[in-house]
Design a protein that fits this description.
The structure is a homodimer.
Chain A: E1 4-6, H1 9-19, E2 26-31, H2 37-49, E3 52-57, H3 77-86, E4 91-93, H4 97-100, E5 107-111, H5 119-122, H6 126-141, E6 145-149, H7 153-165, E7 171-175, H8 195-216, H9 222-236, E8 239-246, E9 264-272, E10 275-283
Parallel strand pairs in A: 1-4, 2-3, 2-6, 3-4, 6-7
Antiparallel strand pairs in A: 8-9, 9-10
């Protein structure tokens, strides 16, 4: 079936509805476009989990704060469509902001607590914007399954909470972060980086890999595990929003004086030039970003 | 088909899902139980608009504020089920509060602006509770149409805003208020009234009828139309929360110094003993609560 690009909400809705009666499951990948291999792995996961694959491309204005990069966020609908066509996607939903957020709209979906730490502490209103757009997109597409990357780890947990709390009939699937050969997590924002900034940006994945090596050697001190990351990142970044050790499910911060359990999230947000990069790993669960021993 | 009573979310969901493939539309009436003829008219409207009729009975804790009547709100599941069975309902969904709001839930749906005046000004958080439970119930039941009474006029408008803003694939149907022969709007809370309080409570429907008579005679002054209601209600009530003239769509208050347009909402909330009654009418659209001339 050829790729269909729908700009209208009603078109996207009826295409997904007409896929369903044939017994086809609809699987959905919400994106902001500027697609890279990380997004395409989400598409692959969607194709495995369902028959009809819908991808949205929408740079959601309400999840950007004032002074953030909404205006310069990369946009390339034609290039994105080619990549998705090659990956067997059925529907691209690329609405206008004016259709998604008409002037008269007044409804907000918000998730508390799990949104307070990590990126939520630095991007006020960001997760309200995420929760609201995800709710709208799910109501338009009506998916059985929706696929999100684990690079936006907090976002994935927020969406899981949202779906459970509002009884949405959607299975939320998290897919491992895709990285360059040298460990850099793929991100649409990597396009902003100069060669020199990119080199310094590798400190994050190297730091996370060091923490894995320490954890594997038996280290459980929250402070020591965090230090493995911070000593590399703080030396290389132009600013650090957070380097946090937390429970991977509740996102509750693990005090530096405590030991971590069998699984521990380490999440990082740091700036390189004007570009803010995020990354994370779950010790005791994920593979390290780069092989053991390469971490330093 | 016999009436099924489902207490579990998963049972309600799968019963509604299994109704759909046969091409049946699911129509839904959310209630807090203690059903009266007003609710049953909603059921009748649901039966007209869809094949499979689901009714929820849930006294929603999060739409009651501190000091409100959550604990003493009337509950009668057996009586309600008999009435619904006689009216041809297919499914009653009567969940436990602990299933709808487990301890770990953290998600809220809120609608701004239209929720600020009228009952929203006196019942802080009430419409967040309404918007959240309606979103959850729609996600469980998956209705094509949902039916609400016009007695809770602001609630109906909030639900319409919510459904439009979040792109829910649900038609929202409003049904006229059902009244006793003497004009009293049916309400589960009427059961709280003493004979004497009930008599004084008639001042609301009489006042609204007077406003209709004035409007029909050509009066357009917001102040004069409001006065027709307030002079009766203020004399009879033990307290008045509001008597408001407003635009029937936006719920924006019409200043007393202005004239109203071709349609005007007059909405009232007042207390009789410990019981808070609400009522409303849309001049230029609704029939008067009681015949012309009886209003005084």
């Amino acid at each position: 079936m050829p790729l269909v690009i729908a700009k209208e909400i009603s078109d996207a809705r009826s295409l997904c509805e007409s896929a369903r009666p044939g017994g086809k499951r609809v699987a959905f990948v919400p994106t902001m476009g500027a697609l890279h291999e990380g997004h395409l792995r989400l598409v692959d996961a969607a194709r495995e989990s369902g028959g009809f694959v819908a991808v949205s491309i929408f740079v959601n204005p309400i999840q950007f704060g004032p002074g953030e990069d909404f205006d310069r966020y990369p946009r390339d609908l034609d290039g994105d469509a080619s990549k998705l066509r090659a990956r067997g996607v059925d529907l691209v939903f690329a609405p206008l902001a004016s259709a998604m957020f008409p002037d008269e709209a007044r409804t907000k979906v918000s998730v508390s607590e799990i949104t307070q730490g990590l990126c939520g502490a630095f991007r006020k209103g960001h997760f309200d914007g995420v929760a609201t757009i995800v709710t709208k997109l799910f109501n338009i597409i009506g998916p059985c399954a929706a696929v999100f990357g684990r690079k936006d780890y907090q976002q994935l947990q927020v969406v899981k909470r949202l779906v459970a709390d509002l009884d949405m009939p959607v299975e939320v699937v998290g897919v491992p972060t895709v990285r360059e050969a040298d460990g850099l997590a793929l991100s649409s924002r990597n396009a902003y980086l100069s060669v020199e900034e990119r080199q310094r940006g590798l400190s994050i994945s190297r730091g996370l890999s060091s923490a894995h090596a320490l954890f594997r050697s038996g280290e459980r001190s929250s402070r020591a595990l965090r230090l493995a990351v911070s000593e590399l990142v703080e030396k290389n970044a132009d600013g650090v929003d957070y380097i946090t050790v937390a429970d991977p499910d509740s996102l509750t911060e693990c005090p530096l004086s405590d030991d971590v359990g069998a699984r521990a999230l380490i999440a990082v947000a740091a700036r390189f030039g004007r570009t803010r990069l995020i990354d994370n790993t779950v010790l005791g669960e994920d593979a390290p970003p780069i092989g053991f021993g390469e971490g330093r």
